[in-house]
Each structure stands twice: as C-alpha cells, then as structure tokens.
User: Fold TM2 domain-containing protein from Diploptera punctata.
Amino acid sequence: MKKLFAFAVFLILLQCNPTSSDYRECSTLRMAKVRCKAADGINCTETNNSTFKRDIPCKWTNGYSFETAMLLSIFLGMFGADRFYLGYPAIGLLKFCTLGFMFLGQLVDIILIATQVVGPADGSYYVIPYYGAGIEVIRNNNWTYKLPQNDWY
Assistant:
C-alpha cells in the first residue's frame, strides 16, 4: 500500500489568500500546511481517506505592499518615507536629515526596492497583488560555502 501511495499522483487543493497570492496558513517559518488529495482509489493509512496534509514552502507576508514601497521610494524617498514604511527608522531618519543623501540615496533605494534586495525589516516578503513569476533573492553569508568536488585538483 505504501509503495502504491509513493507512486500516486497527488493534487494540492490550493487554499490561496487573495491579498498575497500565497497559501492561507503560511507561517513565519515559511511553511504552509495544505490539504492534498491522493489519486483515485488510494486511501491514506493515517486519515483512512484519500486526503492528507502536507507542509510545503511558502512566502510569508506581513502586509507590506510592494507597490506602496515603490511609490514611497519614488516620490518621498528623499525624506526617508520608504525606509520608515519598511521598518528601518535609523536609515529613514538619516535620509530625512540629508535630503536622501543628496538624492543619491533615493536613487539607490529605488533600484534596491525595485529589485527586491531591500525588503521589510521583519524578514517577510512583499505583498505583490498578481499571480505569476516572482523573484527569489539568493544571499551568501558565512553559513554558505562550496563543497569540494571529486574533480577538483
């Protein structure tokens, strides 16, 4: 029975949040429990029916809108409104006092927010009101390194 279940095609019954275009129960751990359905004629041993719950990765959002951040950066970035909105008050105050680092910091922030390099300070993703392709930023830190390969000399 378990081997048959392993080869079964399952369907994730999407439970999407209309505001963030992601799963409804996405947690801060960036995992969501979704209800799945096994192929016809297969019953799960845990639930005694053809549905089961599975953890899948998701993008946790805390309500920060990408459009709002971009508009604030373009029109009020010289006053630091974009950084205050995203939760960076120290940089926002610095931009306010220096008129956006003499407008150079405003230009840099427009680029950083547009490419989603700078996101909300709480580590969440932006709420982007459309379905489709998204950006996944890959960062390098002290915990990431290259593993030696067999063909290295």
Helices lie at 2-6, 66-76, 81-86, 89-97, 99-102, 104-114. Confidence is low (pLDDT under 50) at residues 1-13.
